[in-house]
Structure formats: C-alpha cells, structure tokens
Amino acid sequence: MTLGIPRPLDNELPAAYADRVGQWYMSWNKTNKKLGQFFTPLSVARFMARLLPVGNERLRLLDPGAGLGILSAALCEVSDRDIELVAYEIDAEIADYLDACLSYTQTWMKTKNRTLQYRVVRDDFVLAHAKTLYESSDQLHDAVICNPPYFKLSKNDPRAQAAEIVVYGQPNIYALFMAVSAAILRPGGYAVYITPRSYAAGPYFSRFRDYFFSYMRPRTIHLFESRDDVFEEVLQESMILLAERSGYDSDILLSSSVADTDLGVMSKRITSVAQVVGKDNILRLPLTEQDREIAELVNSWTGNLHKYNMEISTGPVVPFRASHLVTSAGEVPATHAPLLWMQNIKPMRCEWPQQHKGQYLVLKGADKLVLPNQNYVLLRRFSAKEERQRLTAAPYFANLNTPVIGLENHLNYIYRPKGQLLDDETRGLALLLNSDLINQYFRTFSGSTQVNAAEIRSLPLPPLDAIIEMGRLAAGKNFNGTDPVATVLGIYA
Ligand SMILES: C[S@@+](CC[C@H](N)C(=O)[O-])C[C@H]1O[C@@H](n2cnc3c(N)ncnc32)[C@H](O)[C@@H]1O
C-alpha cells in the first residue's frame, strides 16, 4: 500500500523522516485542499513539541488530523517519555503513510530504550468524539498536539451539527477540532495547537471561545506575524496556543516571530492572563511593552460611537445585485449619483471620480440604495492582502454637488442618525481611526484583513471634545504637520 515511500536514512530523526515523506507526497500529489491538508514545517513541529509539558509518566497523546505524524514524531524526539498515541487521519492514503512514519518512529524509540504504542484511527475525528462536548468521557488523554484542518463548513454539515454548542454563524472545522480535542483531555493535561489567529476575536468564534476558555487556560501563545510564510496557502496569521485544562490562571508567555524561518529570534514577554483573555473571552496579544501601554490607554477611554449618538453601517450598494444601476459614465446630479468604492478611499482623502469602473449610480430605481449627501467618515472594510491589518479612513465633507451618494458594500460609513457630523468631528474621527495608535491597538486582538462594523462599534473612544480638537487642529491655518492625535492625547511621539 505504501509503494514508493522513501526509506528512512541511517539514524534519521523521526520528525525529519515524516517531513521528508510529506515533501515526497506533495511532489506528486497536490495536497487535498478539501481536507485542509497543509503539513507543519519541521522547525515549527519541533517548536510545538518542546512547548508541551510531558510530566513523569507514560504519556497518553492525541494527534487529531495527524497527516504524516510530524507533530507526534517531533514529540517522541524531544521528550524522554514512553508514549501511547492515538492518531486520527481521515484520508485513507495519507493514513497508510502515517502508519509507515509512526512505525519508523517506534523503531527509533526502541533504540533510545523507550516505547511508542500507536493506533491510527481512519475516521472523522469530530464525529467520533463530538459527544464529549456534552457529556464526560472516560477515554481521556494527557496531551494533545494538533495542526487541525481549516476550512469553512456549512451549518448543515454533520460535524457542525454534532458540535452545535460551539457553532455560531459559519463554523470553521479547526475550531471544532480544538473544542473536541480539549474535551477529551484530562484535568491538568496540556494541548498545543497551531491554527489561524481568527478565533481570537470576532463574533463567529464567540461560542467557541466561551466554551473553550471555560475549561482551557492559555499558558503560551506564539504568533507568526507574516500572513502566508508558515503555510503558503493560508492567508492568515498563524498562531500557536499552549493551553492547560485547568480552572486556574498563571502568567502567560507571549512570543512572536515573522515566520517559521526566524523562530530563533523571537520577541518574548511574560504577562498576566487578564491582559490577554478579557471577560469577553477575546484574546488580546500585547506582544511588546508599547502594545500593553496602548491597550491600557485605549481601554481607559469611556466613550464609543453610540455614546456620541453615532452609528456605523455598511455601504448598501452590492454591485452584482444592482449591476443594472452601476455605470461607468453618468450625469451628476441630473440622472446619477456618485458611487464610492474602496478604491476611492485613501487615508484622510476621498477621491472621486477615478479611472475605475462603475463610478456612477443611476438614480432611477436606486431610492433604497442612496444616502443623503452629508458628512461621513468612510472606512475600508478590508486591508490589501499584502499589507498588515490597517484601518483606512477618510472624512467625506458632503462636497460633491449632489443631493445623494452611493456607497459600495466594501465600505463602512460612520454617521449621526439623528443629526449631522460636524466638520471637525468628521476629520478628527477619521484621523483617530487612521492613527498608528488605533491601528496598533487593533492589531493586538485581530490579525485578519477585515475590519467589521461591530469592532468599530465596540472601540473605546476618547472624549468627544478631544476628537473635535484633533479635527480642529488638523484644519487650522497653523497646522504644521505635527500629529494632531498625539498632540491632543498628550503623547509626544
Ligand atoms: C492541516 S493538516 C495537518 C497534518 C499534520 N497534523 C501536520 O501537522 O502536518 C490536517 C490533516 O487532518 C486531516 N483531516 C481533515 N479532516 C479530518 C477529519 N474530519 N478527521 C480526521 N482527520 C481529518 C487531513 O487529511 C490532514 O491530513
């Protein structure tokens, strides 16, 4: 069954062998994206294995979604325990190669006077154990090491239904792997996962976070800040979490590196769990002392959009639904309204029209899609793929000659439902949202390229007078380019 599989080299370390088999496999078989097959790089596998405390006894280890077993093999390399492993792998072909890699690991362990007993389970891990989310299990493990598959599931997928307690909106299979594997961990046991960072914040993972962090306490978090270097095809920051099944908190070690190649030059910080896991269970990662100071400052502000009678909404024009109304030429204000897209919004600047398709919206039939021509703060909902998450906001001062405007769906807009935004308020708020301060604050809890309205709604804001003062300063004749946000907040950069 495992015809053609490379043979182990003399004295080859087991994780190095699993890595080589993985590369061989990928050289002739494009990894199966449907099953979320991305194999862990060798350096990352060993890094994860070293994080896992193994105790003094024989270790009952679980590796759900084991692939070629590189994570378990790395643990066998770095720990001095006897190991009893259960490895789940749904892909029958990979499961055969997994068996071969683990068999080599077993032989290698023997040469070190240790034992590895393993069982490869060719089954769906989530379906096999989801019931432990609801009732206790007697098949407990001492440790979990896991790089789960990641892909979105439909709500009707049997796995999403079996794990409904952690599902809200559209689930991603990786969160189900985390919740289910942690549920079959013994109290005091540890789990180490490498996953996208997306579960750390955002409403879709709220039920998962509430469930998972009710019994798992984070001990170490490592963030890879580069979005696509660890797993080429996963355009998200990757994160390693070591968590203990425990009701008690201790300090937490936060570290980061750019990618897997610079694991040796990491930044490191020890901080309290309270700094990282809020009451809302959102994970904030103040990786530097400056991040911590910024989080403390912003969290001390008591204002927010609602307190200032403002609201944020998403642009109502969805081009593929309104394609008959979106045109490249038009007469404003006679028959058309200006239509603003993400491309029209630059930091602190709205540029319209541009050499870009669909800059006009036909008025006839668009009553429900247009907005009154008044002051808005316009925000891009996504950062460019290649850049880090960044808020891009521009003040719009109702300066186009039109009674109404159109805003495309990739924009959010801030307005005052019962009234108008003043010019200085509009400018000041846009300045604040573009500022390095707020961007650094956002990056401590979100690594995604998306900035959703709910996040801006819950963003703490300084007093409204301060925001107005920022706008006033920036508009003033004597404005000399000093940063109005820093000046008003008393931070002299
Ligand atoms: C992201 S890969 C990681 C593989 C390996 N753990 C590593 O670190 O290289 C996830 C693995 O989970 C397997 N998988 C996907 N869905 C699964 C399921 N429902 N149950 C068990 N394994 C699954 C895939 O075939 C794939 O090999």
How would you describe this structure to a colleague?
The chain has a 9-stranded mixed β-sheet with strand order 3-2-1-4-5-7-6-8-9. Helix 2 (42-51) packs across helix 3. It has 493 residues and is α/β, with parallel strands linked by helices. The N and C termini lie far apart (64 Å). The protein is built from 15 helices and 20 strands. The longest helix is centred in the first third of the chain and has 20 residues, at 92-111. Bound molecules: S-adenosylmethionine. Residues 35-40, 65-67, 70-71, 88-91, 94, 124-126, 147, 149 line the site of S-adenosylmethionine.
Q: What's the mean pLDDT score?
A: 90
The number of helical elements comes to 15
- Count of spatially separate domains: 2
CATH class category label of the largest domain: Alpha Beta
| CATH domain topology of the largest domain | Rossmann fold
Protein structure class: alpha/beta
